[in-house]
Amino acid sequence: xxxxxxxxxxxxxxxxxxxxxxxxxxxxxxxxxxxxxxxxxxxxxxxxxxxxxxxxxxxxxxxxxxxxxxxxxxxxxxxxxxxxxxxxxxxxxxxxxxxxxxxxxxxxxxxxxxxxxxxxxxxxxxxxxxxxxxxxxxxxxxxxxxxxxxxxxxxxxxxxxxxxxxxxxxxxxxxxxxxxxxxxxxxxxxxxxxxxxxxxxxxxxxxxxxxxx
Length: 213
Prior knowledge:
This protein is of the alpha+beta class.
């Protein structure tokens, strides 16, 4: 699906400010802001004003409430006219037992160039945690663009789901054994040795520093 953009003329200056405020919270902080967070960021004197503008943006289809009450960004307003883009979901924290790529786990949708995320494959973005892959250019807080697939080749950086926890590691298969290798300056990280008791969610295509979105 191509990115859906809203005409900025449909929004007041305060609404545009609120959209960017909430979007930045979701992308940079990794969680949805509270009403009081929005109140402080917008300079309002009461939470009611923040609650009203959030409700307005939900009514206009920019955000929606997830089952846990957090906000999910579902439409974008900034159109990069120079590039053809596709909406790629940013995956948030995955509850134990929940399908990782279920829509309920989306924090936001981020426009990504189709040169990086062509329509021939499904893609998602995942926020990296920790330093286990910093020698491969993935630092804590970075976003990684992942091509969704269930297979991998030796040397690929993959997103693996192990006991409902997602991890990014380098994939190696030796006979019937799978080794998920960290690539880190921190020697405390050790390889994870598995047989088939895990799922490959996708292969990492590129890394996007968290402060560049």
